[in-house]
Design goal:
- This protein is an alpha+beta fold.
- Helices cover 52% and strands 15% of the residues.
- Strands 1-4-5-8 form a 4-stranded mixed β-sheet, with helices on one face.
- A hairpin with a 2-residue loop joins strand 9 and strand 10.
- It is globular, with a radius of gyration of 21 Å.
Length: 380
């Protein structure tokens, strides 16, 4: 076991940190309050290679490993989780899915633009009655020979209003259950494809979250990804990788709150000394540091498993479960350390606390992670 980052990894981490501090931090409070999608910043992240971190350079990607990806995600998430989730979805769910399962024609047409940031992608699985129970898809795609007719509703879709390319999971044969599900590439602007109003959310308010409606959308046969009936397997494997990205996001949110709380505790005085010298605060900081370090190793382990070609279904579930718990617990503690100031937007920690909650919900709730883990340990 080698716990030291390579020089290349350190350079990648530092580049992401500089971008987060110099580009994301200015205006982050205003974007949160006004729910502004960071269009110009997304373009800059594309130019830096953040939107296609793990994609093969022949398709316009950066060709980096999963360790690099989680380092970038952590640094971005310390400052702006709304920006980092755009990176996560584009990389883990859309680019990965196309590169791993798409045809060469699909990769040339879509992946090359997604990896460079020319396009932004969205992953469309959740429905009003199919969130954690992903097999209960009501969206249908009827085979018409050379095309499919797509009908249904998808909700809670990240990048929903800004995406150019949507990977849509739909039922093609209900009698086959999970083996009758497929995934389709839908382009913005296709006739019958409608984007609903933006959701007014608790956290990650700069992220673009919408309900999507598909009314007799004609999808060419060549836009189906993979073999007939492979959509559910596609979704589950893609989500396993996505959980690594969200675990890294949760880690970054927790780390960002800890760094702010530590700095504040060395500046704020009470009872004649800096509050970090009071055991009540010092012990909170010790717990934060310890839990964040533990979460970091779990996230790195999941990333390492993926890079080694090992099965990462369980390690990604463990990483997401623990990192999201850490984020929620210790952003709350950061607010407590700040006291009344922690309740004020100018100090950032209240936003990090709001952003933390979603990491326990999307790309598989904490309860779903426990199902994945418990099934594995009881089966073996």
């Amino acid at each position: 076991m080698n716990f030291n980052l390579s020089e290349e990894h350190k350079m990648i981490r530092d580049a992401a940190r500089d971008f987060a501090q110099n580009e994301l931090l200015p205006g982050v409070i205003e974007r949160d309050e006004k729910q502004h999608f960071p269009d110009e910043l997304v373009k800059k992240m594309g130019d830096l290679g953040f939107l296609g971190i793990m994609v093969d350079p022949k398709y316009g990607g950066s060709g980096m490993d999963t360790i690099s990806y989680v380092l970038i995600m952590e640094e971005l998430s310390k400052i702006d989780a709304s920006a980092s989730v755009i990176v996560s979805v584009n990389n883990s769910l859309v680019c990965y899915g196309l590169e791993a399962y798409g045809t060469e024609e699909q990769k040339q047409k879509y992946l090359t633009k997604l990896a460079t940031g020319e396009f932004v992608g969205a992953f469309c699985l959740s429905e009003p009655e199919a969130g954690s129970d992903a097999t209960s898809q009501k969206t249908t795609a009827i085979d018409k020979g050379d095309h499919y007719i797509l009908n249904g509703t998808k909700n809670w879709i990240t990048n929903g209003g800004r995406a150019d390319v949507y990977l849509v999971i739909a039922q093609t044969d209900r009698d086959k259950g999970s083996h009758g599900i497929n995934v389709f590439i839908v382009e913005k602007g296709m006739e019958g494809f409608h984007i609903g109003p933006k959701e007014n959310k608790l956290g990650i308010r700069g992220s673009d979250t919408h309900t999507l409606q598909f009314n007799d959308v004609k999808v060419p046969k060549e836009n189906r990804i993979g073999d007939d009936g492979s959509g559910f397997r596609f979704a589950m494997k893609t989500l396993s990788g996505g959980r690594i990205g969200i675990a890294a996001q949760a880690l970054g949110i927790a780390s960002g709150a800890y760094e702010l709380a530590l700095k504040y505790s060395k500046e704020r005085k009470a009872f004649g000394t800096e509050i970090c010298n009071h055991q009540a605060i010092a012990f909170k900081l010790a717990d934060m540091y310890s839990d964040i370090e533990a979460a970091r190793y779990l996230v790195m382990r999941a990333a390492w498993d993926k890079d080694q070609g090992a099965n990462y279904d369980v390690s990604s579930a463990v990483a997401k479960l623990q990192a999201s718990k850490t984020a929620m617990q210790h952003t709350t503690e950061a607010v407590q350390i700040f006291g009344g100031n922690g309740f004020v937007k100018d100090y950032h920690v209240e936003r990090l606390m709001r952003d933390a909650k979603i990491t326990q919900i999307y790309e598989g709730t904490s309860e779903i992670q426990k199902i994945v883990i418990s099934r594995s340990i009881t089966k073996n």
